[in-house]
Amino acid sequence: MRYNDLTYRELPLTENLSETMTRALPFWHESIVPALRQNQKVIICAHGNSLRALVQYIDNLTDEQVTDLDIPTATPWVYELDDRLNQIRHYYL
């Protein structure tokens, strides 16, 4: 099995938050942002580290702050953003 130019055995078993951010931010900019700009509601269901990367970016958290961030499993977290996609507030349902 091949994934791009890597064989299945060459794929890393883990990735750090920086690597996750590198992978998640293009999806944010290319898929999520356009939907938000069209006033669509977006639901993101992802692994904890992917969510942590997006929260770090949206909330402009430092590496130390995001390390302390606890994202509970199966608990919806709502973000309200302004027209420039800056956080107004966020809360758990």
From TrEMBL:
<dbReference type="Pfam" id="PF00300">
    <property type="entry name" value="His_Phos_1"/>
</dbReference>
<protein>
    <recommendedName>
        <fullName>phosphoglycerate mutase (2,3-diphosphoglycerate-dependent)</fullName>
        <ecNumber>5.4.2.11</ecNumber>
    </recommendedName>
</protein>
<keyword id="KW-0413">Isomerase</keyword>
<dbReference type="InterPro" id="IPR029033">
    <property type="entry name" value="His_PPase_superfam"/>
</dbReference>
<keyword id="KW-0324">Glycolysis</keyword>
<dbReference type="InterPro" id="IPR013078">
    <property type="entry name" value="His_Pase_superF_clade-1"/>
</dbReference>
<dbReference type="InterPro" id="IPR005952">
    <property type="entry name" value="Phosphogly_mut1"/>
</dbReference>
<keyword id="KW-0312">Gluconeogenesis</keyword>
<comment type="similarity">
    <text>Belongs to the phosphoglycerate mutase family. BPG-dependent PGAM subfamily.</text>
</comment>
